[in-house]
């Protein structure tokens, strides 16, 4: 019989300092308190060893396009940074320029261009360098597609090319791209996205240039459909005010199916294995008879991530990619902070190598 | 129409320095660090890391205007180290944190891919029956 005393959850989950309270109309204890100076006489100095000990990562579900994993023991700022980076700063390739040679469809040029831009492409962004405004397009920063399609009437009145789909995009290799890509022909990740519908006689003939970018410039470069996290739910029963057996079924129906177990003699307990499915609807808080016998909580540092990939990345590599981006950011700031330190120590201490050059680059000691 | 170019959010301009420090003249051991072309992602991370270090008496950040791609990080220390030094250590510690995270994450995935012991949500090895055994189901 599972109850909070013989729990599947690690006992530290029941430490009230890790709990965010969920009440009928508000939440409480949202901010973390494990930093120095918060609890008198306790040392909460950050240490790598302690962090390593508390950190757990575990995969919960992995499919072709999505992954769900738990990240336990990190601060919300870290969890949120990775969520933001996955959405906005992991690079992908997307169509940026659309040159319209002919478009007699009912879709206007600019709408067509917008729709083309949003098509996710299966190109590894590592093979490309970004092309900034003013840069000359060449084979390392631009990928060219052709979309040339005409609708016509076939035998017995059948309409040919009625639907223009993302599968109609034709890659036009430039420079050394043919040998670089080999068998990995750049296409849309999904070949069945309808771009436009045509009637016989209508033509679309456009040239498309795809470049590397990041989601914070435009959402078309975001590699994810969603990247979200939620905190692990927790339902705590009050042993001094148990649920009376005749109300046990009503109590159970206040929660997601499986969360509350009712024994044959009407005894109520929480099934930890299904706890993560709890929606925290707070239905139980609406009933007077359950007042004081149950508390709804969330675990502040237990993040349940759900990431859906929609681009070239497999879902399980998106998180490592975001870590790479994050490391790049922090390394840049550290180098700059070191340069500042060298500056403040004066030219005699820092020697010639210390200051950043005209590009802001900093020489680092090997 | 007059919106700033979107690439200005993350591309450093010609000769622009990523970090600038202004010493605070009215408060001892305090400085304001201006970090250019970065947003809440990094700002909040640095702030929380700084707060977890005992030498730091105050750390906070603000993004003065959502269209201006920089933030200000205010740091005050207890005097044993300078704000710039403490920022540098914070970066080093964050890199350690993230490296640990990356290692654990990668290990978790290789572990499962090899067909080793499957664990359920609570680290208990799964024997094969029940919902938890099908943790790798496709939608």
From TrEMBL, chain A:
Localization of this protein: Nucleus
InterPro entries: DNA-dir_RNA_pol_30-40kDasu_CS, DNA-dir_RNA_pol_insert, DNA-dir_RNA_pol_RpoA/D/Rpb3, RBP11-like, RNAP_Rpo3/Rpb3/RPAC1, RNAPI/III_AC40, RNApol_insert_sf, Rpo3/RPB3_RNA_Pol_subunit
Domain DNA-directed RNA polymerase RpoA/D/Rpb3-type: 66-336
Gene Ontology CC annotations of this record: nuclear DNA-directed RNA polymerase complex; RNA polymerase I complex; RNA polymerase III complex
Family matches, as SUPFAM superfamilies: Insert subdomain of RNA polymerase alpha subunit, RBP11-like subunits of RNA polymerase
UniProt keyword Ribosomal protein present: no
Compositional bias of kind Low complexity: 344-357
A molecular-function term among this protein's GO annotations: DNA binding
Gene3D superfamilies, per database record: DNA-directed RNA polymerase, insert domain, RNA polymerase, RBP11-like subunit
One family name in Pfam for this protein: RNA_pol_A_bac
Region ranges (Disordered): 344-366
Keywords: DNA-directed RNA polymerase, Nucleus, Transcription
Record's keyword annotation contains Membrane: no
An example Gene Ontology biological process: DNA-templated transcription
Entries under CDD domains matching the protein: RNAP_I_II_AC40 (cd07032)
PANTHER family: DNA-DIRECTED RNA POLYMERASE (PTHR11800), DNA-DIRECTED RNA POLYMERASES I AND III SUBUNIT RPAC1 (PTHR11800:SF13)
Family the entry assigns: Belongs to the archaeal Rpo3/eukaryotic RPB3 RNA polymerase subunit family.
The protein's name in its UniProt record: DNA-directed RNA polymerases I and III subunit RPAC1
Native source species: Trametes pubescens (White-rot fungus)
Automatic annotation (TrEMBL), chain B:
Pfam families the UniProt entry points to: RNA_pol_L_2
Domain DNA-directed RNA polymerase RBP11-like dimerisation span(s) in chain numbering: 30-102
Transmembrane segments: none
Subcellular location: Nucleus
Primary localization class, coarse: nucleus
Tree of life domain: Eukaryota
Signal peptide: none
Annotated Gene Ontology cellular component terms: RNA polymerase II, core complex
PANTHER family: DNA-DIRECTED RNA POLYMERASE I,II,III, DNA-DIRECTED RNA POLYMERASE II SUBUNIT RPB11
Family: Belongs to the archaeal Rpo11/eukaryotic RPB11/RPC19 RNA polymerase subunit family.
Listed name of the protein: DNA-directed RNA polymerase II subunit RPB11
The organism of origin for this protein: Trametes pubescens (White-rot fungus)
């Amino acid at each position: 019989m599972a109850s909070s005393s013989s729990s599947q959850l690690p006992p530290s989950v029941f430490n009230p300092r890790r709990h965010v309270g969920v009440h009928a109309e508000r939440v409480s204890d949202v901010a973390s308190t494990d930093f120095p100076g918060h609890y008198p006489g306790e040392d909460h100095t950050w240490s790598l060893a302690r962090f390593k000990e508390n950190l757990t990562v575990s995969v919960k579900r992995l499919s072709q396009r999505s992954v769900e994993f738990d990240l336990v023991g990190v601060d919300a700022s870290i969890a949120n940074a990775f969520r933001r980076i996955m959405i906005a700063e992991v690079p992908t390739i997307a169509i940026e320029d659309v040159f319209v040679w002919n478009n007699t469809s009912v879709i206007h040029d600019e709408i067509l261009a917008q729709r083309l831009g949003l098509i996710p492409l299966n190109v590894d962004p590592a093979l490309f360098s970004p092309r900034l405004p003013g840069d000359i397009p060449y084979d390392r920063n631009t990928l060219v597609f052709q979309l040339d399609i005409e609708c016509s009437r076939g035998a017995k009145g059948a309409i040919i090319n009625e639907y223009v789909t993302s599968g109609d995009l034709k890659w036009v290799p430039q420079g050394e791209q043919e040998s670089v890509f080999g068998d990995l022909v750049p296409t849309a990740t999904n070949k069945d996205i309808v771009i436009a519908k045509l009637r016989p006689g209508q033509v679309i003939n456009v040239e498309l240039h795809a470049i590397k970018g990041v989601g914070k410039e435009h959402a078309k470069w975001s590699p994810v459909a969603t990247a979200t996290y939620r905190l692990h739910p927790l339902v705590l029963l009050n042993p001094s005010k148990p649920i009376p057996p005749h109300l046990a079924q009503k109590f159970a129906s206040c929660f997601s199916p499986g969360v509350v177990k009712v024994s044959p003699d009407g005894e109520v307990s929480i099934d930890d294995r299904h706890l993560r499915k709890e929606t925290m609807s707070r239905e139980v808080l609406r009933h007077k008879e359950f007042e004081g016998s149950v508390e709804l909580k969330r675990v502040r540092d237990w993040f349940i991530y759900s990431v859906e990939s929609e681009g070239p990345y497999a879902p399980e590599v998106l998180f490592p990619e975001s870590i790479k981006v994050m490391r790049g950011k922090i390394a840049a700031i550290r180098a700059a902070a070191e340069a500042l330190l060298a500056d403040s120590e004066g030219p005699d201490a820092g020697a010639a190598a210390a200051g950043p050059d005209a590009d802001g680059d900093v020489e680092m000691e090997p | 129409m007059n919106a700033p170019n979107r690439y200005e959010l993350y591309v450093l301009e010609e000769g622009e320095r990523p970090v600038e420090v202004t010493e605070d003249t009215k408060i001892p051991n305090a400085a304001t660090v201006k970090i250019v072309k970065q947003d809440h992602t990094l700002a909040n991370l640095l702030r929380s890391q700084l707060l977890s270090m005992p030498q730091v008496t105050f750390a906070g950040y603000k993004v003065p205007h959502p269209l201006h791609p920089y933030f200000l990080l205010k740091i005050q220390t207890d005097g044993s180290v300078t704000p710039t030094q403490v920022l540098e250590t914070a970066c080093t510690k964050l890199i350690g944190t993230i490296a640990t995270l990356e290692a654990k994450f990668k290990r978790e995935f290789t572990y499962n891919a090899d067909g080793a012991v499957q664990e359920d949500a609570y680290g208990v090895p799964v024997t094969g029956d029940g919902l938890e055994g099908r943790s790798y189901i496709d939608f």
